[in-house]
Amino acid sequence: KVYNDILTKRELEILGYLSEGLSSKEIAESLFISPGTVRTHRNNILKKTKFKTMSHAIAHYVRQGLI
């Protein structure tokens, strides 16, 4: 089961950028953080939600209207 309050604001922000097709490098530049930090957030999103792919996570959160 996936809970909507499981992700931080920053993780939801990263998901939002990913849903718009931005790369990790582009997200890092937009948020003034390192690409490694973006990668960490991406890994945390998958661990917390138990989705196997980022596409599944993005689709779920878009359907829920959270990004």
How far apart, in Å, are the first and last alpha carbons?
19 Å
Low-pLDDT segments: none
Residues in β-strands, percent: under 5%
* Largest sheet data: none
Structural class: mainly alpha
Shape: globular
Average pLDDT works out at 92
Helix content: 55-70%
Count of discrete alpha- or pi-helical segments spanning 4 or more residues: 4
Global Rg:
11 Å
- Listing every helix as H and every strand as E from the N terminus to the C terminus, the arrangement reads HHHH
Instruction: Give a count of the beta strands, DSSP E runs of length 2 or more.
Output: 0
Structural features, described:
The structure is a single chain. The chain is mainly α. It is built from four helices and no strands. It has helices at 9-19, 24-31, 35-49, 54-63. Helix 1 crosses helix 3 and helix 1 (9-19) packs across helix 4. The model has no long low-confidence stretch (mean pLDDT 92).
Q: What is shown here, in short?
A:
This protein has 4 helices and no strands. It has helices at 9-19, 24-31, 35-49, 54-63. It starts with 8 loop residues before the first helix and ends with a helix.
Topology record:
Layout: H1 9-19, H2 24-31, H3 35-49, H4 54-63
Helix pairs in contact: 1-3, 1-4, 2-3
Supply database-style keywords.
globular; mainly alpha; single chain; 66% helix; 4 helices
